[in-house]
Design goal:
single chain; 208 residues; alpha/beta; 10-stranded mixed β-sheet; 10 strands; DHBP_synth_RibB-like_a/b_dom; SUA5_domain; double-stranded RNA binding; Sua5-like_dom
């Protein structure tokens, strides 16, 4: 059975379509969706079987998975991270929502949820109405990864949602068409030493 291909307006998402997408994710489905950078592959963070499916698609073991947590805002991230400095929080407040991934020390809950020994976690709050409304309906973060290995410098990152659908329609349950995506990943900031350090320069101009 092929995945659903669902066109959603990128600036004014239709509530009916958002509800349809949210229900698919709640039911354990995998979704490919647009962010403010690349198209991502994700699922409900609380569904272990769905997380395992994402790992199989990426060809990685769950114990070694290195996913980002896509959050609606910063209000509940303390559940997923250990305490961090006020200066880092201010930096996150200044730059999010936006095309940035902040690497923080993971709370004790993360290994229990993902069944691995992750010590760090990447937090993303994309500047995307589609993502924002998906998360509002889901009431959980989406655990997410890129659909292509970002370290692959040879293969161009796919930006056409229909091309993505044709490649992944038998692997996922839903592909959201929010228009052409970008081909530059997020900027990654390592905050695990309480001194922010850019470890991957991507989209966005980090404000200090």
């Amino acid at each position: 059975m092929s995945a659903i291909f669902l066109e959603i307006h990128p600036e004014n998402p239709e509530s009916r379509k958002i509800k349809q997408a949210v229900q698919i994710i709640k039911d354990g489905g995998l979704v490919i969706y647009p962010t403010d950078t690349l198209y991502g592959l994700g699922c409900d963070i609380t569904n272990n079987k769905a997380v395992e499916r994402v790992c199989r698609i990426k060809g990685i073991k769950p114990q070694k998975a290195n996913f980002s947590f896509i959050c609606s805002d910063l209000s509940n991230i303390a559940f997923y991270t250990k305490p961090f400095s006020n200066s880092i929080y201010k930096s996150m407040r200044k730059n999010l929502p936006g095309p940035f991934t902040f690497i923080l020390k993971a709370s004790n809950q993360v290994p229990k949820m993902l069944k691995n020994n992750r010590k760090n976690v990447g937090i993303r709050v994309p500047n995307s109405p589609i993502v924002s409304q998906l998360l509002e309906g889901l009431e959980n973060p989406i655990i997410s990864t890129s659909i292509k290995n970002i370290d692959d410098d040879i293969t161009p990152y796919p930006t056409d949602p229909y091309t993505i659908y044709e490649e992944y329609k038998h692997l996922v349950d839903l592909v959201i068409d929010g228009g052409f995506g970008g081909n530059v990943p997020s900027t990654v900031i390592d905050c695990t030493n309480n001194q922010p350090e850019i470890i991957r320069l991507g989209l966005g101009d980090l404000q200090y």
